[in-house]
Structures are given as C-alpha cells and as structure tokens.
Amino acid sequence: MTNFENLVDRYFALAPAEDPEPYFAQFASDAIVEDEGVTHRGVDAIRAWRAVVPEVSCDVLGVDAVVDEYVARAEISGEFPGSPVVLTFLFTFTDDGSVATLAIRS
C-alpha cells in the first residue's frame, strides 16, 4: 500500500471514531473542506461542519492518484435521504501527511 493510500485509509478509519480529536488532528490548521457546495476553511469550521454531518458508515471502493490529488470512491450509508450513495472524495495532503484539502462530490 502506498503512502497516499495509508493517508486516505486513515481518514476513513478516523471519521466514525467515537473520539473525534484524532479525526480533527489529521487536518492542517488551514485545511479546506468542500461538501455539498459549501466551503469550510480551518479546523474550527471543519469541526462545525462535522457537528451536523449525520452518522454514516463508509465502504471504500477504490483509491487512485491523479496528478497531485488522491481520489477515493466510497459507498456511504446512514440515516439520510437516498442512502446509500457513492461519493467521490478528492484529497490533497501537506508534505507531513496532513489533509490540506478535501472535496466531497456526488
């Protein structure tokens, strides 16, 4: 498994964890997350976004490197309309392995 696959796997492993702090710690302090057309800048904004995201389970279907971006497709299931759905997660990482950007697309 390549390093970027480990970083993506880390994201999906930490997302449902009961203790949210390791999840937030994987983001750079100035990270940007885009979900449902809304941009969240910085860890405080990412915390606020996650506070309203429904509890879900993820099944990662595949991870690919495309130029400087890492693309994961995952089936997301939970208590929300249209569940389950397959979403695309577009990641970039800092040199130290922190999440720099994450865009979630349907």
UniProtKB/TrEMBL annotation:
Domain (SnoaL-like) ranges: 8-98
- List the Pfam families hit by this protein, alphabetically: SnoaL_2
Q: Which residues lie in coiled coils?
A: none
Q: Which InterPro entries match?
A: NTF2-like_dom_sf, SnoaL-like
Q: What is this protein's record name?
A: Nuclear transport factor 2 family protein
Q: Which organism is it from?
A: Mycolicibacterium hodleri
Q: What is the lineage of its organism?
A: Bacteria, Bacillati, Actinomycetota, Actinomycetes, Mycobacteriales
